Amino acid sequence: MTYRIDPDVLHEVAVRAVGVPVDSGELITRTIELLAEAYPDLIDTTPGRWVGSKAGGVLGKVRFLYFSPREYIVIFGSPTGTQGFSGRYKHVDIHKFLLAGQIDSYDLESDDTTPLPPLRPGDRTCLERGHARGLTIHPGSWHLEYGRGAVPTTLPFAMVDTLLVSLEFESVRRSTVEFAKLIRRGRRRHG
């Protein structure tokens, strides 16, 4: 199966964005510019809305940049930090490319009682299909996240915690609006 996005290109984008100031919003703007240069027909550069997201206890802000049934790209982060469960995706690989901060994680099923190496700016990791991790996202951490596979199968995990535990209907509504906008955009360009 062919995909439109190359994780190695996303890693190059993340490495080029490292060091750009976070507080002024420059990091996010520069990252989106670099992504749009690499994928001009895919990345939505129009000012988007940040959406609150709580999945697996991990609470943060997400900005949707590309969404299709087989791939997605978002920027995710937290100014104050968060921790929780990565999720277990049977049909999707989740790639993370750290732009700023630090992410600590550990494999939930291994016999190893030590954490995985910390993810630092410019680093990348992949949560392969069927695996799960515990993680801590340090304050001021932001990353590119790329999902590859049967993307609609990730939506229940991405929405259930926000909807049923937090009862945060507005975030679910905003997420749905952003997904629909990106799907319509993709259909207009490729349909």
Automatic annotation (TrEMBL):
Signal peptide per UniProt: none
Q: What is the native source organism of this protein?
A: Mycolicibacterium gilvum (strain DSM 45189 / LMG 24558 / Spyr1)
Q: Which Pfam families match?
A: ERG2_Sigma1R
Identify the taxonomic lineage of the organism of origin.
Bacteria, Bacillati, Actinomycetota, Actinomycetes, Mycobacteriales
Q: Locate the coiled-coil region(s) and give their ranges.
A: none
Could you tell me which InterPro entries the record lists for this protein?
A: ERG2_sigma1_rcpt-like (IPR006716)
- Highest taxon of the lineage: Bacteria
Keyword match Endoplasmic reticulum: yes
Major subcellular location class: endoplasmic reticulum
Q: Does the keyword Endoplasmic reticulum apply?
A: yes
Localization per Swiss-Prot or TrEMBL: Endoplasmic reticulum membrane
Q: What is this protein called?
A: C-8 sterol isomerase
Entry keyword set: Endoplasmic reticulum, Isomerase, Membrane, Transmembrane, Transmembrane helix
One GO molecular function term of this record is: isomerase activity
